[in-house]
Structures are given as structure tokens and as C-alpha cells.
Design goal:
The complex is a heterodimer of chains A (about 240) and B (about 600). Chain A has about 240 residues and is an alpha+beta fold. Chain A contains 6 helices and 10 strands; from the N terminus they run E-E-H-E-E-E-H-H-E-E-H-E-E-E-H-H. Chain A has a 5-stranded mixed β-sheet with strand order 2-1-5-3-4, covered by helices on one side. In chain A, strands 6-7-10 form a 3-stranded antiparallel β-sheet, with no helix packed on it. Chain A is globular. In chain A, about 45% of the residues are buried. Chain B is α/β, with parallel strands linked by helices. In chain B, the strands form 4 sheets. Chain B has a 6-stranded mixed β-sheet with strand order 5-13-12-16-14-15. In chain B, strands 2-1-3-4 form a 4-stranded mixed β-sheet, with helices on one face. In chain B, a hairpin with a 5-residue loop joins strand 12 (about 415-420) and strand 13 (about 425-430). The longest helix of chain B has 18 residues, at about 510-530. Classes of the chains: A alpha+beta (about 240), B alpha/beta (about 600). Chains A and B meet through helix 2, strand 8 and strand 9 of A and helix 3, helix 4, helix 18, helix 19 and helix 20 of B.
């Protein structure tokens, strides 16, 4: 621990200590307060794109993963209104892609699915977009299924900032955004991605999967089959 | 898969890369030039650019894929984009587009078999006072009608170079209809700078403060405050001071000329006929905040202005108004560079604009920190609207009190309005703040006006009951767009057009805007197709709430305004279109047979449900 934690913010009425430089999300996680999130991973620079972690600070909505904690902030997070909006965002993520949980290798280990469980999502609510997206099986050890990409850019950040390879990037705009890889052919097999890279480990959904591992752990014994995403992520925070 | 083969690629690439140097901030400018020559960005060019700039391939591909005027697949040698604002539609754009396609045996957004021509839509090109308008290979065409399209089709078929086309096709006029303090008097180059230098930086800032000038881009932040924050900024990165007042302050002045709001075209006129005033204001700003470098970010649609702007800059350098020791003031050095955009409305958002200046996709940054402390390349940066800088020049010249005497207490000075739609005299009108909508409509010759869209799709639509409201930050704030609709117009079409606009322009960074604007568009399509129900209106309201409260930036949070305004103020506009049922599926059984009909070439009664 560095500086003493004498400063505090309040989340849902509970006093939470923080250090300078921490975001609201950092302070919350450290104090065992779960704020739903998908694009955030404490190992990487915050991104702020999924907006699931939106909280109300002094009456204004902000993404808690990017907003610095400031002394005296009154934060509302676990409210009916915010959870309802988070549920809508999760439903949006489901319908814009092609997420077919029962046939997905990642089922049970998927954070998108787990957040949906946590928020009580019973239906997609919106009409599915059924987009045409490319699947890339050219890599010997990894499968890239863009149908399940939620544009969190965790693989982009990991490959660029940790692996020093910049294998992944986002191209396109708006709903036409697409995950691209670093090869003239556009194929993952022509990049220098290795299955041991950090980028190969961080996908919260089943967009980037290790080949030949799909069912080494049977369905029913997977991470979120028994524990909520809240317990899992708060547990990881304290490991 | 991407197209890779392009003959003579090295011959094309070498001069382009040499011209722009190896700063990665030049990436967008490089890609623009490649697109110009090749009519797309070939995969091999992406590799070469990446190697030249020392960045990853995905970085280059990310930029090439983001901007509307760049493409990784070939477009036609003649690429014609119709401006798709509602005002263009009202002037018959849809029919004209179809007319040209028929004439050229084309399908919209498909390149002709011989690669000669392609026709598509683009967002408002800022020619609403002389529409229907279009861009051909980036150059504006105005006042389009069937006669002009006949001529254009002929010129394309005979493969005449654009340089040899009749100049009247490209004629853009100012249409200044009413002038006041800003436009009424020509700007004497150097006059404002001289006054500022005589007063000193501190006193000039205090005049700016007295003037109470507020940003003309719509948000209305007080300009003097922005300048003083930037002046005082000590930007820190990882705890270490990278810039402070005492050291070598590197600060930037950026002029936001990404006038993308549909219905706005005042900056086009300022840059065409008052460029000196704008550059003068930027120079005054640089003097006050201590900047040595400025950028004018010019929207791609206005590239035709570039040549003249460069000439004005050159003249100012020669006159000692830019460069080292401006007007003999030792140590005051400042110069301005013009950067071109490439078709992205989102770049009007200041942090997205800075990203684009740095040669990246225009995705708005997380804030804080704000540009005044961490802007271009992480340095303190002032981003102001074109008109704001023009006002600043006038204030530096004539003083803050002179400016503050015009307009209202909270909205001082004058405002340029870009007026289009159902009026007799479209163009630029300058009014002191506080003028009523009714007065403006009378002056512009509106016949039976019914509604006015103030400040474009992201602004508000007001009904005839509200025509006594005033143009002012405290009542109807505006960036300048003023689109008039008369009694005969179907306002559903307006909301429908705007829903498509936002869906097209969403940068895709955040979930609520990327998906929410699409959902809005789909629901509006459904209602438009005669399948809407009351449930769809409820869904639009819910989506509006999510867009407003959860979005990353102003694009998303205002993207529902047209639907919410129309439903609130003109409910019958929607209700007329609805089916009386409580629920109707979005899935259109008959529509689903369309592909089969196309394949079989049938369209008879029995081929429909």
C-alpha cells in the first residue's frame, strides 16, 4: 500500500476509502463493492466503452471505470434505475452480435452471459440484428469468431500494451465496427499471435478461443455455473 | 478479403509519403491522398504507410475504415455522393439520385461494372441554401436538377477530367442576407493583433472576459474561461510535469471547422469570405494562452476552400501576421496548419477532433482530463468554433464592452444563422442575440411556417406555437442551423432522416450509441413502412432515455432529440402512421420474399403475400 487512505467517497450510502489516482471502480472493487462491467479489467488501462459500469455521481451519470474518485463524491450504483439501464445495454450487446449461448464453447465461462444472469436478463427484448460477421479459423491454436465480439478492445490493449505485438485493432465505424488483425491477408493465422500471449487470455466472451480446449471442463462445472460474476470478480480482486 | 493489386503503387506512394513526412499525426492526410489517386486504399498501401510511419498495420487499417471518404474497396473513378440532409430531400434529392442512377444504369452504392462510376448518399455537405447538393470525388456540386444531371452523366460517360467540367456546376455562393457587427465590416488584417499586442496578453484576456463571449459551436462555454484555463494549465503525465508556464510552454490553438451539423453552413461562408478574421482571432488566442502552433480542422466536405485558405495563410506570413516575432513582437511566434477531415460528423466533438488531428479515428476521449489541460499530443489545447474566433478578433479590436453591449445579458454579441428549408431567401443571417424566431421567419420569407429545427438534428424542433421564443443561450441555444418546415411537410420524414443520420455517424465506441442509434433507425423504418404500433413509440421513448443518460458523448445523448421532440410536439405525426394494433412484429413476411422475387424476376400479384 502506498499513500494512506484518508479520503473517502460514498457508494450507495456506504463510505469507501480511496487513494489519489484511483477511479470509482478501483475504490469500489477494493472495498468489495461490485459494479457490473465488461470492458474493464483491472490489469489494463480503463476503456470506458461498454458503459455497464455507469454510476450516478452527484446527479450525473459517469462511467465509474474512467472517472477518478474525488473526495466527497456521492455515488449511486445499485439502484433500480441504473440496473434497469445496465440490463438494456446488455440486451443491446446480445442483439447486435450473434450470441448463441447453448452452442457456444465459452458458455459458463462467458462474462457477457454471466452479467446477463446477474442482471436478471430473461429475454433479448430487442429484435436481433443477425449481422454477417466473419469467422477466422486460420490460426493453428486460436479461433476468432467475430460473431461474439463486443468491442471491449481487451485483446487490442493486451496485445499492444503487454505483448508488444499489436495483433488486434478496431476498424470501421458505428455498427460497422469490426475487429481486424495485423496481417495483409486479414487472417489471424498470418499474424504472430501465440496462444500464450496475454491477448489470447483476456476475451470476456467467446470471440477469441483456444482451439481444442472447448470442453475440457464440462458444462455445469464452469466458473459462472456455480458462482455469480460479482463473487468471482471481487474474489479475483483480493487474490 | 481486401483488394491488394494496384498498378504502380510505389510510384503513387513515394511522393505522397515524402510530402507528409513521418509524423504519425499525418496518417489521415496520407490516406486522403492515397484515396484521391487510387479511388480506395489498397491493402499494400496500408502496409507501406505502416512501415513508413512506424506504426502497426491495424493502426492504419483502423483509420482507413473509420472515415466515410476513405474506403478499402474501390469506388468509381467518378464517385458521386448526394447530400442527404432533410433540406436536400425536400428539394427532391431522392428522385434526382434515382434519376441519375437510371441514366447511368447503376444501383445506388454499387460501382458500375467498368469501375467508372458509383453513386451514393452522404451526410449533409453544408450547401442547404443551394441544394440539392452533392460531392463528386470530394468537390461540391450545387443546385442540382435533371438538366445538370444530364450534363453530369454525359461528362462521366465521356470520361472528361473534373478539371475540364463547366465551372458553373461547382459554383458555391455565400448568400449573405443580413449583416451586423461581425459581417458588416471587412476585417483589416493585423488590426486586432495590433490592438492585442498594445494591450498585452493579460489585458486582452480581460477584454475577452468583459465581452462575455460564449462558444458559438452550441455548448456556450465562456471563451475567456477556456483560454485562461489553458493558459494556466500545467499538464501532468504520470506525475511528472511535462509543461508549465515557466518552462517551455507548448500549447495549441485549434479552430473547429468540422461544420457537420446538418443544416449549418455559416463556417463555410466565414472561411470563404472572412478567413482573415478567423485567423486573426486564432492568432489573438495564441497570444493570450501562449501557443506557438495552431490548426484549422477543415471538414472534408469543404476541401474546395483549402486552396484559398492556404493563400490567405501565405499572405499573412508575408505580412508578418504569422511566423516568428509577429508584428515585431519579440518571442511571439505562431503559425497555422490546415488539416482536412474525411467525412465524420463525430469529429466536431472537440476531443474526437483532437484524435483526428493526431491522425487517429475520431473517437471521443474519456474526460476528465479535458483538452484545455490534455489536448493535442497531451498538451494544453484550446478548441473553439470558427465563429468564436471571428468574434474574438472583433473583440480584440473593438473591446469587450463594445461586444457586450449587443445581444442579451447572458448571450452577448451576434449570432450567424444558416437558414434553409421552406423560405424564399435561404442563406446567412446575422442577428444580435435575443431575436425572435418569428422575426427571422418574416425576414427570410417563410410561407406558412409550421416548425423550425433549431441547431440541427442534435438541437430542438419547435412548433408554430413557440415562434415568439428567442435565439439565446437562455432560451434557444444554437450552433446556427435553422431549418424551416411549412404546413405541407410531413415531419415524420424529418425525424426519420435524422434517425438515419445519427445511426450513420455514431462512432461505435460506446454500447448505447452504437446499438441504440441502430435500434432507433430500425423502429423508425418499421413505422415508416406502415408496421408501427403504440409499443414502438414507447420503445423510442425508452431508447431516448438510455441514449441521453448512458452515452459517452454529445452525439449519443442528443441522438434521440428528433424523435422525442416530434412525439412530444407533433404526436399526430407519428400516430397517423401507426397501425391500430397494440403489437406488430418488425418481421415483414412479404418483405422477406423480396430476394426470391429478385432471383426469379417476378413481381406479379402471386409473388406477394
Amino acid at each position: 500500500m502506498g499513500a494512506p487512505m484518508s479520503k473517502t467517497i460514498t457508494i450507495d450510502g456506504k463510505s469507501i476509502p480511496f487513494k489519489d489516482g484511483q477511479t470509482i471502480m478501483d475504490a469500489a472493487m477494493a472495498a468489495d463493492v461490485y459494479i457490473p462491467h465488461l470492458c474493464h479489467n483491472p490489469e489494463f488501462k480503463p476503456h470506458g466503452s461498454c458503459k455497464l459500469c455507469t454510476v450516478k455521481v452527484n446527479g450525473r451519470n459517469v462511467a465509474s471505470c474512467t472517472m477518478p474518485a474525488v473526495e466527497g463524491q456521492q455515488v449511486l450504483s445499485d439502484t433500480l434505475e441504473l440496473n434497469d439501464e445496465r440490463l438494456s445495454l446488455t440486451q443491446m450487446l446480445f442483439v447486435e452480435g450473434n450470441h448463441i449461448c447453448p452452442s457456444c464453447e465459452k458458455s459458463g465461462n462467458c462474462q457477457l452471459q454471466a452479467v446477463a444472469y446477474y442482471l436478471g436478463m430473461m429475454s433479448p427484448h430487442y429484435n436481433h440484428f443477425y449481422p454477417q460477421r466473419e469467422v477466422d479459423a486460420s490460426h493453428p491454436d486460436m479461433l476468432l469468431d467475430r460473431n461474439r465480439c463486443i468491442y471491449c478492445e481487451l485483446c487490442v490493449r493486451a496485445s499492444r500494451d503487454v505483448d508488444g505485438k499489436s495483433v488486434f485493432g478496431l476498424s470501421g465505424r458505428g455498427i460497422g465496427s469490426t475487429l481486424v488483425v495485423n496481417s495483409t491477408s486479414g487472417l489471424l493465422g498470418d499474424t504472430n499471435l501465440a496462444a500464450t500471449d496475454k491477448a489470447a487470455q483476456v476475451c470476456p466472451t467467446g470471440a477469441l478461443l483456444k482451439k481444442r480446449q472447448g470442453f475440457t471442463v464440462p458444462i455445469g462445472q464452469r466458473i459462472f455455473d456455480h458462482r455469480t460474476i460479482k463473487d468471482v470478480q471481487l474474489g479475483e480482486e483480493h487474490e | 478479403m481486401q483488394q491488394t493489386d494496384s498498378p504502380d503503387l510505389p510510384r503513387i506512394m513515394v511522393p505522397i509519403l515524402a510530402r507528409h513526412g513521418s509524423d504519425s499525426a499525418q496518417l489521415l492526410q496520407i490516406l486522403r491522398d492515397v484515396q484521391d489517386v487510387c479511388h480506395f486504399v489498397p491493402a499494400d498501401a496500408i502496409d507501406q504507410i505502416a512501415a513508413h510511419l512506424g506504426v502497426s498495420r491495424v493502426t492504419v487499417e483502423g483509420v482507413a475504415g473509420f472515415y466515410s471518404f476513405l474506403s478499402t474497396q474501390p469506388v468509381g473513378q467518378y464517385h458521386l455522393l448526394f447530400s442527404n440532409n432533410i433540406t436536400d430531400q425536400m428539394l427532391g434529392k431522392d428522385e434526382l439520385l434515382q434519376y441519375l442512377c437510371n441514366k447511368l444504369w447503376l444501383e445506388r452504392s454499387r460501382v458500375s461494372e467498368d469501375g467508372l462510376v458509383s453513386v451514393d448518399n452522404t451526410s449533409c455537405t453544408g450547401m442547404c441554401d443551394q441544394g440539392p447538393a452533392a460531392l463528386i470525388n470530394g468537390w461540391p456540386l450545387t443546385n442540382l436538377d435533371q438538366n445538370r444531371l444530364d450534363l453530369i452523366a454525359e461528362l462521366i460517360r465521356s470520361q472528361k477530367p473534373l478539371a475540364d467540367w463547366p465551372p458553373m456546376l461547382f459554383e458555391v455562393v455565400d448568400n449573405i442576407r443580413r449583416t451586423d457587427a461581425l459581417l458588416g465590416e471587412a476585417c483589416v488584417p493585423g488590426a486586432a493583433i495590433k490592438q492585442a499586442l498594445a494591450r498585452g496578453a493579460k489585458e486582452t484576456l480581460s477584454e475577452m472576459d468583459k465581452s462575455n463571449l460564449r462558444g458559438r459551436g452550441g455548448a456556450g462555454f465562456k471563451t475567456a474561461s477556456k483560454w485562461s484555463f489553458c493558459h494556466a494549465a500545467i499538464a501532468e503525465e504520470e506525475g511528472s510535469v511535462i509543461c508549465d508556464i515557466g518552462g517551455n510552454p507548448e500549447r495549441f490553438i485549434v479552430c473547429n471547422a468540422d461544420e457537420g451539423e446538418p443544416g449549418t453552413f455559416k463556417d463555410r461562408v466565414l472561411l470563404n469570405s472572412y478567413a482573415d478574421m478567423v485567423f486573426e482571432g486564432m492568432t489573438v488566442g495564441a497570444y493570450v494562452v501562449g501557443a506557438s502552433k495552431g490548426f484549422l480542422y477543415l471538414r472534408g466536405e469543404y476541401r474546395y476552400l483549402l486552396k484559398n485558405l492556404e493563400a490567405v495563410l501565405k499572405r499573412r506570413r508575408e505580412a508578418g501576421l504569422l511566423g516568428d516575432n509577429i508584428l515585431g513582437q519579440t518571442g511571439f511566434s505562431f503559425d497555422i496548419e490546415v488539416h482536412l477531415g474525411a467525412g465524420a460528423y463525430i469529429c466536431g466533438e472537440e476531443s474526437a477532433l483532437i484524435e483526428s488531428l493526431e491522425g487517429k479515428p475520431g473517437r471521443p476521449r474519456n474526460r476528465p482530463p479535458f483538452p484545455v489541460t490534455h489536448g493535442y499530443k497531451g498538451r494544453p489545447t484550446v478548441v473553439d468554433n470558427v465563429e468564436t474566433f471571428a468574434c474574438s478578433a472583433r473583440i480584440a479590436e473593438k473591446g469587450g464592452a463594445w461586444f457586450a453591449a449587443m445581444g442579451t445579458a447572458q448571450s452577448t454579441g451576434t449570432k450567424l444563422l444558416s437558414i434553409s428549408g421552406d423560405i424564399a431567401r435561404p442563406g446567412i443571417y446575422e442577428y444580435p442575440f435575443g431575436v425572435t424566431v418569428r422575426q427571422i421567419l418574416d425576414d427570410a420569407g417563410a410561407d406558412e411556417p409550421f416548425a423550425v429545427q433549431i441547431s440541427g438534428p442534435s438541437g430542438t424542433m419547435i412548433s408554430w406555437k413557440e415562434f415568439d421564443r428567442k435565439i439565446a443561450f437562455e432560451d434557444l441555444p444554437t450552433a446556427g442551423a435553422f431549418m424551416v418546415f411549412n404546413r405541407k411537410r410531413d415531419l415524420f420524414l424529418t425525424a426519420h432522416n435524422f434517425a438515419h443520420f445519427f445511426a450513420h455517424e455514431s462512432c461505435g465506441f460506446c454500447t448505447p450509441c452504437r446499438v441504440g442509434t441502430q435500434l432507433q433507425k430500425k423502429i423508425m423504418d418499421k413505422i415508416s413502412g406502415g408496421h408501427g404500433t403504440i409499443c414502438d413509440m414507447e420503445e423510442l421513448k425508452r431508447l431516448g432515455h438510455i441514449l441521453k443518460t448512458m452515452s459517452h458523448c454529445g452525439l449519443g445523448s442528443s441522438a434521440a432529440n428528433p424523435m422525442l421532440d416530434a412525439m412530444e410536439k407533433f404526436p399526430d405525426v407519428f400516430e397517423r402512421k401507426l397501425k391500430a394494433l397494440a403489437f406488430e412484429p418488425a418481421f415483414d413476411l412479404d418483405g422477406a420474399l423480396e430476394t426470391a422475387r429478385k432471383i426469379t424476376g417476378r413481381d406479379d400479384e402471386w409473388a406477394h403475400l
